[in-house]
């Protein structure tokens, strides 16, 4: 599809930008660079001029467009909700088409048009190797995010011996009176933090839900979106839509904020040719729900509170703060994860300064813009240190990965964990205490 | 607009030598992304420079003066009057890298800042120390203090606390000839020579480039209460503004919305207004906690005979935020009424607010134009928004008729055509409605004395002679 065709679908949205500058206040890149070209308003002017044929994708345009984290903060703060993230994604695909996938090197290019994407995903999953990339399937977003040279100088969790697919059955039965849910894990959880998947589905199972973990699910598409890989994106949309299409579930639960946002965005057919993926795609997107939102909406926090009635001695409580993932915060989800943390008896919740500041990971951003990524990340240090917390919880494994790196570099005496890991720990502690009694 | 700039590679190299190669941008993309402001008009600069110090700026201005290159300072580019538009091309000096808070002096209640500091960031920093910087333009989350000084920004709190000029004690300025001068100082009292500080505040970047600002701070008020008052008609609300002030109470903020503004937000989720509510006020009072309840009671008493429907007093910060949501939702909702917005910020003496509102309502009906009014009623500053579709035949002329009539009425009531946005480009045709020829001549003499080459933000404030003469011909 020509850029004109794809961009012109956003003509109305582009004209809704009134150039007020409100996007500057929230854009992590603008706050780090103080340059207008990096902010949404600059990107939108550029897109408008490109559409009108009065500008071209010169080196500076490519540079400006590469500075976007696709975090959505500008959309959230825009008085007219102009979807700058989607518009930047269109332009990045055009850049890749015209100039190749230069920004992230050949790793991405090798994936384009690979007919055995899913097959290699499945085969790669079961293998064990000390080398990171031998363990991660070629379609995985992790490959796009962490090309070998960007892994240097970065703290990485020890790779789990078994990935999520090896650790969890396809179906975890619950009580017959409760609905069935599906779980979408995403690459970071599947291959780096399978314990988050385990925590999420086990908590749901404790609450009575039957949980399905489809084997055919793949990468959410965020790194492909971010690096402008339109072909890969389409393949992933088709594969994931098919993986969940025949399941009789009302909700597809995610525990990765970025996966949730990407699935919503790409499956609402904003980024694929209309008609190609059809109804299933939209229905898939409408079912995707973040675990924290689900627990709150379904009243599960009350049930959890009842299950957790055993009191924890004040001295045994752990001081925990929370980091807002951009892909939850910018979709209005800030209350629910905090509510969950406050429900857990062993958690002494403290609000940290700058909880809403971006961690700087941003999909492929940390790979394509390592210095800027760290500048953005370092803004978290002050708040983390001042919180006095032993644990910083978050709702996105990408943020957890990045927070771990920040904590390590700053030498802070704390650890990053997923909220659901804490939730399962609390449940198991409560059940163990009840058995003792 | 004539383009006088003739920037060449030699000039670019000289700029690179001053600020470093990475801070000089002249590609089409870089010029494009610095070609606009919140007026949504576009003018291409020839080069965009991001300096880091007063000395760099002085060197750049000297270069510009030597080669007769136009230049203009730019902050967040969020102005509503076109002050940041490079109408004659040339050099755009973006000051956002100069964003350090240099000092917060808690003994003398002073802050010293660079011009690129975002207003809300200074407010957060001083409030952590129990201090207060009151000016709060709606753009405070992204507009810069340099821009606030250049336009003399206001905001809702000005009814009680005054505008930016009331907080600027001293400035470092690079003049259009490249000299570095210092005005005012660190003391409240200072009568040595002319008050150049006040001259530069609100000068819209036409007299020099402010590179350092000394600001006066206040102790932070201990408490604040927020109240929403609804009225059966606009007259009552407008009268209430005068009644409250006559009652010797100066609220922190006194914001109003007319029926049109209410109509834009009434159906939004979370907003619950009585069906017969045709106008509303949002009133805040601050000070010692014990004083606030009696003040609110007295305000309710004063409003009671004026068609007051109901009052809601927020009991906590979240409830106050919910009340403010009603007001903040107006601007984003306006687009429903028409794709093109003419956003004026007239100001009249407080007691004339009812009369001004009546005149606006009559005009709206007579011309069948949606005119939505809201804003800072407490200081007489009314945001008048004409929402139209310029594609409709004859609309452009209709808008011009309406604007001219609005400004004439404003001036005849003793008001001003701009309270806080400035003249820039957008209001040039109307400056003659308010300022007579001798007054304008004094202003232009000052401009000519400070900027003999006419390179500093050229084409702003003063219209070309012919247009000015026309406007003045119309007044008499």
Question: Which features characterize this protein?
Answer:
heterodimer; A: about 425 residues; alpha/beta; Glutathione S-transferase Yfyf (Class Pi), Chain A, domain 2; Rossmann fold; B: about 475 residues; alpha+beta; Uridine Diphospho-n-acetylenolpyruvylglucosamine Reductase, domain 2; Uridine Diphospho-n-acetylenolpyruvylglucosamine Reductase, domain 3; Alpha-Beta Plaits; seven-stranded antiparallel sheet; five-stranded antiparallel sheet; 17 helices; globular
Approximate shape of chain B: globular
What is the typical, i.e. mean, pLDDT of chain A? 84
User: How many separate structural domains of chain A?
Assistant: 3
Helical fraction of chain B equals: 25-40%
Overview of the molecule:
The complex is a heterodimer of chains A (437) and B (476). Chain A is of the alpha/beta class and 437 residues long. Chain A contains 28 helices and nine strands. The longest helix of chain A has 18 residues. Among the domains of chain B are: 86 residues, Uridine Diphospho-n-acetylenolpyruvylglucosamine Reductase, domain 2 (2-Layer Sandwich), CATH 3.30.43; 119 residues, Uridine Diphospho-n-acetylenolpyruvylglucosamine Reductase, domain 3, CATH 3.30.465; 110 residues, Alpha-Beta Plaits (2-Layer Sandwich), CATH 3.30.70.2190. In chain B, helix 1 runs antiparallel to helix 3, helix 8 runs antiparallel to helix 13 and helix 13 packs antiparallel against helix 14. The radius of gyration of chain B is 23 Å and the shape is globular. Chain B is 35% helix and 20% strand. The longest helix of chain B is centred in the C-terminal third of the chain and has 18 residues. At the A-B interface, helix 4 and helix 5 of A face helix 2 of B.
